[in-house]
Amino acid sequence: MSYTLAGAVDTAAPTLSIGRRSILSSGWRRSLAALAPAAMITAGLFYIMDGLISVEDVTLDPSPQRILESIVYSHHDPHTAIFVRPRPEMIDVQTPPPPPQRSPIDTDVGLPPITHVGGVPSRTPIANVSTLMTDASPIIDRVATPVRQPLPVYPSAMASRGQEGECLVRFSLTARGAPFNVVADCSHRGFESEARRSVEKAEFLPGILKGQPAESHGFSYPLQFRLSEE
User: Fold this and answer.
1) Residues with Cβ within 8 Å of residue 104, at least 6 apart in sequence
2) CATH: 3.40.630.30, 1.20.120.450, 3.30.2420.10, 3.40.190.10. Which one for 115-127+134-225?
3) pTM (2 decimals)?
4) Does residue 126 carry a pLDDT above 50?
């Protein structure tokens, strides 16, 4: 019994093994049959693409060589005009004659420098002192006096012409002694500006009225402009 069973098993096994090999060999054949046309198509495409992409050799014509001449830069431009500045001629300068000598201006220092042309109150009799009205008849305690005299300068235009002249300068004084309303009456108009300026720069002590500084009016100052005869 044991031998019969073993023989049956052995005869069936080889038949099953032969069937699997036949199946595998037939599959490979079909795969090779399918790959062969694809390989041929791919090889044909590569051949066509190689023909399209191939580039023929390009031979360039040799270009002629140009030999450049040496270039020399010149600072002189024939189209540009050159201006030569002429040398200035020497001018013979003559020494001008000396200006006329000027003498010190006579301001009449020895004379009373200020002339008060206003009214002076008359003396009141002693018997009528009690009837004196201080508001109506003010008493001047002190008349304005100069502290710094006017120092006029001879006008150069008048000196060059040899012109002499005289001026009478009228003015008023503030409560601080400053001149104002200065008017100059001169023999020549060329002296008026300097005459006014010199009096405006002068300093005065103001007049005193009832113990207080007050404005004063009606003053005049004589000025003379003289050239030296030397």
Assistant:
1) none
2) 3.30.2420.10
3) 0.41
4) no
